[in-house]
Amino acid sequence: MAEALRIGIIGAGLGGTAAAGLLQRAEFDVTLYEQAPSFSRLGAGIQFGPNVMKIMRRLGLEQKIEEVSCHPDYWFSRNWDDGAYLSRIPLNAQHDRYAATYITIHRGDVHEIMIGAVDPARIRFGKKLVDLEETAAGVVLSFEDGSTDTVDIVVGADGLNSRVREKLLGVEDPLFTGWVGHRAIIPASKLSGLDVEPCVKWWSEDRHMMAYFLDKDRSEFYFVTGEPAESWPRGVAWVPSTRDEMQASFKGYHPLVQAYIEAADTITKWPLFTRHPLPLWHRGRVVLLGDACHPMKPHMAQGAAMAIEDAAMLTRCLSELGTADLGGTFEAYRTHRIERASRVQQVSNANTWLRADEDPFWVYGYDIYGVDLRG
Ligand code: FAD
Q1: Which intervals hold domain FAD-binding (predicted)?
Q2: ipTM of this model?
């Protein structure tokens, strides 16, 4: 063991799972607690930039993920009605410059691969954290099923409605952004004969649609939108939607967008939330990462990326700076993350990313393992 300390990670989303795998590889004693009764394959797509794939490399997962994912050469931005090209951004067309692959994939597939990098004996499903209390013996975690566990360090990776964040900062609802997103997965066979680009975002002034393939064989295509909405019912995670609703919302959009919608059998609609920047990321033996700490609108496809980068930096700080001065180590983690995570949060919320030609190197070229921790 690198340290005899027991680390409890709350939440086995993409951030918590990455943290568990990385900390276990650094020989920490880690348990991952997840409220869901078992792993579930969420029906959505996700993009991982080269900044994330460099971390997957450390987890020993880079090749495995590359083998099943789609690797678009370019990101295209196109005008909503006439399809005019607004930007053509090299992704894997500049693979060597970014020093890793840009992938698009089914979220469930990549999550499952990442879960496989965590010792199965140390994942506890069905453990919904309801309370935590710092005591002389450590932090006592209390779960909804009545059980408790005691750990030395708690990592709150429990997402937007983080209970760990609530324990640090009090109860506060996340902010509805006034935006919703429609999502659907389409069999690519339903689009055959059409000139479907592997990674494309269609833009009009007040809404957009992002679309890409989910697998190496390009057999599944996915779209996710961003559209204004006046309100969202409190406590509702998502609602079913329809082609009619989407056709009304995307009226006048290019025939390719109409074809994607026409091909979608199951469409869902999701609210987009955010939070004001948090005044603290850690207190005592408790530290936050990912959406628990800095949720954002998803328009830059970097929310999970920031959670995974947090996990990598937290692991580096605990391994390289040690745990004797835990407050100092957590503060170093925050210092090395806040500027980048806040910049990404700001650009993502503004929904301007790659709309016009720009160099995305500051995001994709970033290598968290190249950061000088003492600098
Ligand atoms: P989550 O993924 O939310 O995981 C939190 C986990 O904690 C969950 O498993 C939850 O069940 C568990 N949990 C919660 N409360 C408790 C509790 N009390 N006890 C125990 N467990 C608990 N990001 C990208 O990088 N690329 C993309 O392409 C992309 N596309 C997106 C598209 C949409 C429409 C949306 C909404 C988001 C997108 N994101 C994308 C953002 C990304 O999904 C999030 O930023 C990311 O999932 C955050 O990861 P996380 O691990 O912090 O939190």
Answers
A1: 7-346
A2: 0.96
Residue 246 beta carbon below 6 angstroms from any ligand 1 atom: no
**How many whole angstroms separate alpha carbon 218 and alpha carbon 323?**
46
Q: Do 104 and 213 form a contact (C-beta atoms < 8 A)?
A: yes
C-alpha span between 91 and 93 (Å, rounded): 5
CA distance 115 to 117: 5
* Distance from Cα 157 to the centre of ligand 1, integer Å: 9
For ligand 1, atom 33: residue with the closest CA: 298
Kindly state if the Cβ of 11 falls inside 6 Å of ligand 1.
Answer: yes
Contact 185, 43 (CB under 8 A): yes
- Give CA angle at 21 (16, 27), nearest 5°: 125
Question: Average pLDDT, stretch 273-297?
Answer: 94
Which residues, other chains included, contact 339 with Cβ-Cβ below 8 Å and sequence gap of 6+? none
For ligand 1, is residue 151 a contact (CB within 6 Å)?
A: no
- Averaged pLDDT for residues 125-133: 98
Per-residue pLDDT tens for 57-78? 999 999 999 999 999 999 999 9
CA atoms within 13 A on the CB side of 268: 12
Using the predicted structure, report yes or no on whether residue 359 has a pLDDT greater than 60. Answer: yes
CA of 192 from ligand 1 middle (Å) equals 32
CA 291 – ligand 1 centroid, Å:
6
**Could you say which of 33, 98, 102, 212 is catalytic?**
212
Residue 70 is classified by DSSP as: B
pTM of the model: 0.97
Report pLDDT for 43: 72
> 298 with 14: CB under 8 angstroms?
no
